Amino acid sequence: MKILFFIILAAMFYAPKALAIEEPKFTDKQSYKDFEIRSYPPILVAQTEVSESFDDAGSQAFRVLADYIFGNNTAKTKIDMTAPVIQQPARSEKIAMTAPVTQSKSDSGYVIQFTMPSAYTRETLPKPNDPRVKIIEVPARKVAVYKYTGSWSQKKFNEKLELFNAALAREQIVTKGEPTFARFNSPLQIWFLRRNEIWLEVAKINMPLKTDLKTRLTPEQYRCTQENGTERPFANEYWNNKEDGIYVDVVSGEPLFSSRAKFDSGSGWPSFTEPLNKAAVRTLRDTSLGMVRTEVRSTRANSHLGHVFDDGPGPTRQRYCINSASLRFIPLLALKKEGLGVYLVDFAEPLKLQVATLAGGCFWGLEKLLGEIPGVVETRVGYSGGLDLKAGYDDVKTGKTGHAETVQVLFDPKKVSYEKILKVFFSIHDPTTINKQGNDIGTQYRSAIFFHTTEQKNTAEKLIAQVDASKKWPRKVVTRLENFGGFVVGEGEHQKYLSKNPDGYTCHYDRKFGF
Fold it and tell me: Which of 67, 100, 187, 371 could covalently link to 82 via disulfide, CB atoms 3.0 to 4.6 Å apart?
């Protein structure tokens, strides 16, 4: 029995290798943190269509194509099979490069494809006898590829696709068409070793390639960001810069550090106690130079920034020691012009302005209406009330992080009072529903006021009593008063969402109650 067990186990692990088949060769590959981009040349595919769903008719279509490659062709010859097997729900006129099986939706149903071996040309490839099989040449294209293992399920595919899209957005890569699911395993492969890929055709890469960076960056900037270089201490641009503003990645423009977190460490390099957003940077173990250090890289562009050490001042006790050459400084008064107005909120004190932090359902509609109040200088959306400083939209929407979708309002107290802003707040959302606003349900949609000072708390308590006494709402106010404990800036696509998407979803409107 033991011998039989080991024979079966060996078959599962080694038979797939013995059955190795050709895969389409790509001409170029660019590696990113969570995915890669490949360039494929033109490729020949055998294609058939089915009028029913892939689950119902896919096996029949597979047999039609299998008959073709096993001899049902004009040459009566066997055509070697290639990998991967692919399913793609897309319109037939937008068929992506696939191999050897593709599913793509057409007007009449689905398109299934086998990719032909690279040794064939359109002229030498045997013609199909079955009229249901067509030979198509798919043009050259560039595809983004996300890898994972395991057996197929629609749920898992959707989860991985969501992660893939988030990674593409971070790298500023725009795709087109529908996603393709690629299976590389042989039928004998054990399920947890099965290799899968999701493909999306690349329409545009907004992030510059390294070849372009050599032209755009100075030699020192390129050496530091792309070759893990370190500039000389006390002989760099920002080590002694004391001006208010934001430091961004010199490669991508991604906001990384604030002057509010900058301090003089005496090291000769710009030093910060923390990044603007924990998700904007990532850390790696660095064993170069015969020592163990923690490297800091930007998340979006993967630029080498410097290192972080545990010898900084409180409360973080950290020192982010960063190359000036990896950064570009944007002065406070230039933030709005550079599209970084959301960070003006962090400089309320030197600007002699104040901040209100409010939650009341989906932050899209709340931000738009609060931003229209005369005297409001800037608004931004994000997340408050939770502990995870790396939380993003995908985390918060689960309702498990403790955060609420939140709007921060930067206002001029000489032109509008905090009380006036709260009066509008209580008029544009329903403060009487617990963890619910319109169709949105969950603690992330709770009504809350995150007060920054005792004075703000007192004003909020007074106004809640006033709103209840007015009887404008049929139920008691359930808005929570929470001590402000931090704010995670929301993703760029959520900032000023309704200004960019006027027909977008909102459940907020001004009832003009006039409390």
Answer: 100
